[in-house]
Structure formats: structure tokens, C-alpha cells
Amino acid sequence: MQLIVPNIQPFRGLRYDLGNVGALSDVVAPPYDVIDSKMQDRLYQRHPENVIRLILNRDQPDDGPQSKYLRAAAELRNWQREGVMTLENQPALYVYHQTFTHEGQTYTRRGFMARVLLEPFGTGNIFPHEETHSKAKQDRLNLITACKANLSQVFGLYPDPDNVVQESLEVLVPSITPLEAVDELGVTHRMWPITNTDVNSKVSQLIGDLPVYIADGHHRYETACNYRDARIAEGTHTAVCDYVLMMLVSMDDPGMVVLPTHRMFRGIPPMDHQELKSKLADRFVVTKIGTGAAVAEQLWEEIELEGSQEVLGLYTAKDDCWNRVELSPEGMDRLAEIAADHCDDWRGLGVSILHHLLVQDCLGLSDLPTPKYVHRVEEVIQGIQTGDDVGRDATGQVGEGQPFQLCAMVMPASLDHIRNVSQAFERMPAKSTYFYPKLLSGLVINPLG
């Protein structure tokens, strides 16, 4: 198949005027899909022009279906009129660094933001790796239609073993004063607008023939495609609608960290070690590790050290027991049988083994409530000890919400998994990856009209 190269362009970004709003830290926010109601309230209170009012406008009692989107659009217009946000004088690529600590080590993940030419998945050189949901896409389409802007960036990865693309931009960074913000997790975010036309042209050429894999923001990417198609259909299309705001990071950047996404299940009948072992039969080798929520730490250290997608940690609440669960050759054969329409890399994912074989096939469970997703072992332990937030009363005590009866610790998908599954034109199960840290919204906006 003839691949269409992504078209990377600098653009005149819409940015906060710090002389107007003060500290950048006060007006930025995480991506909308990780913001709960409590964080939304904090961000609303932090600053009257925090970007939360654009990306996740708060519902009001008398709202109609489009009210919150129209309020966001009105805020954006007012902020431009009042000088809260202003357009860059020249088209720029925006170098973006995130400095953070993980497991006692400090990392800096480096990338840059640009306009990227939209391509329907499966037709060119941009690949998804996770499934999307229609409700989330409709929500984002309503917002982009009202605001006529990409308010948050898609996160894209590209292969570049020597990091040549990023280094071409880094040479200019020392001569430019960075814009800096610190988020609630202590991550430092720095951004430099690069307006040098020769350097930006070189970057566009270097990255032009490389594949791009969507790491995060699948809904935003597909929404941008839908927005473009809607503008074409109604005769209001302009060239800028053919692009989407994207953060581009080398898959070989030393700051790349992919965290696991552990599952805490609701609605599963209680079982103990022996019942679990019996239900998994010869599909898995089940070994009892110990009792007590805190045993999770020891078990996870062992699983991480092995580094195998085929080894899971399962907690059975009935006997307060942690179990080491390893896929057997018979289990591998069974998974190949029931998931014959998927590629080997997809079947080799820990999340595929967990959901497709263990939960659905061995336990016979389907249509379960959405699990609680957490990324740190401490969160798993806390969830076991304190129960679910669902059903808590005003005092914080667990009410009628069900406790977690089964918890699963699972290895994260690697960048190679993303590449291989994507190039097989498949998509991973939901929450297969968690790229840490999240990109901030509000650093720069891409206007679409």
C-alpha cells in the first residue's frame, strides 16, 4: 500500500498572555478525560481564566444539550477580545519538555507540537492503537464545532532511534526563554515557540516519511476528522480544517515512560484461591503468594522483574489472597482459538489475556461494570483496604457500593506492542497503555477559523 506522509506544519498558536493572567500554572489543566468533578471544581476556583472553562465547562441546572459548549466558545471569544489569549506573531513549532520523577529517578520527556495533516485511519501513515467510543467523540465534536479550535493536543509517537528530529529543534532552545508551569503532580512543563523557518522546514522534512502512532487522544483525532468532514459537507471547509494539533515524541526519547493500568473489578461473584484455581483449570498456573492487601508490593516486584505479559497478579477478596497467575501452553492454544481474528501481538498482551481469556472465557463473565483503573500498586492496596468510592456516604464511609472482589495487576504494553499491533491494523483493548505524565491543556491552542 502506498503510504501518505504526514504533513507537519508550524502554526500561529493561540496562547495565554502571562502579563494578563499571571502564572501559567494557574490557567493550565490536565486532559479533560482524567478530570473528575473534584478536580474540575479546584481548577474553576484556581483562576477565572483557567482552561477548564474551555475543555470541560461545568454543567448548569437549566442547560440545554449545547449550553456548556456554547459557554466555552463564548469564553474563548471573550478571552481573545480582552487580551487574555493572543495569537503568535509568526508560525511556530512548539518544543515541549516534561520533567518528572518516577520510582526515584528524574526524567525529561521531549517533543514538539505542530499541525499534522489528518488521514483517516487505515489509509495512510497515522495509526491508532486503542478503541474509541461514540459518546466521547460526540462530546468532543460538539466542543470543537462551537469553539472552532483544537483546545488540546493529540499525543503521537514516531520512530527515530537517534532522535534526529528533536535534536534539530533542541539547538535553538537555549536561546529562548521558556514558558513554564508546574502541575498538581509536581511535573514541570516547559515550552519554547520555535519560529526559525529553516529549522522548522528541516523538521517537517525529517519527520515527513515516518509513521506516527497515536499514543493518547484517539477521540480527539477522530473528532478532528469528523469535524473536517462536516465542514466539507456543509460547504464551510477551509484548509486549516485538514489539520489537527499534535504533540510528537520520538519513541526512542529517553524520557518515555509507560505505566501499567491495573484493574479493580466490580460485580464479580466472590471467590477464594481454590475457586479461582479451579475456574482457571489448565489455562493458567495459579500459585498462592500470600494474604493481605500489602502482599501486592512483593508480587508486583516479581512480575516487573520477569517482564512477561503472560504473568498476572490476581487478588481474591473472599480469602484476602494474592495469586500469581501465569498463562499455560494450553491457555495459549485456547486464546489462539477464541481470538483467531487477532494477530499474535494482540493475543500476547497482558490485557488481552486478562479480559478475553481469563475473565470472559474461563470465568464466564461478560457485561461487567467498568473496572476501576489505577496505575500504582499503592492505589491497588488502598482500593482493597477502603473499598470503592461508588456508594460512599457523606462521611466517607462505604455505603451500598460493592467492594472490589477481584483485582488484577498487569504489565503495560510496550512501544513495540503499539507499533506491531497498529501496523497490523488492529486496536488494543481499552486502557492497554498509560503514558506518564499527561500533556497539559492550555499551553497552546490551534485555531480552526
Index terms:
449 residues; alpha+beta; six-stranded antiparallel beta sheet; globular
Strand content: 15-25%
Q: Low-confidence parts, pLDDT < 50 over ≥5 residues?
A: 1-5, 391-400
Q: What's the gyration radius in Å?
A: 23 Å
- Largest sheet report: 9 strands, mixed
Shape: globular
Q: Helical percent range?
A: 25-40%
Total separate domains: 2
Report, as a whole number of angstroms, the end-to-end distance: 34 Å
Write the SSE topology:
Elements: E1 8-9, E2 14-16, H1 18-21, H2 37-46, H3 52-55, H4 67-81, E3 85-87, E4 93-102, E5 105-117, E6 126-127, H5 134-147, E7 149-150, E8 154-158, H6 164-170, E9 179-182, E10 188-194, H7 197-207, E11 212-216, H8 218-234, E12 243-250, E13 258-259, E14 262-265, H9 273-280, E15 284-291, H10 295-306, E16 311-316, E17 321-327, H11 329-338, H12 344-347, H13 350-362, E18 372-374, H14 377-386, E19 406-409, H15 415-423, E20 434-435, E21 446-447
Helix pairs in contact: 4-5, 5-8, 6-7
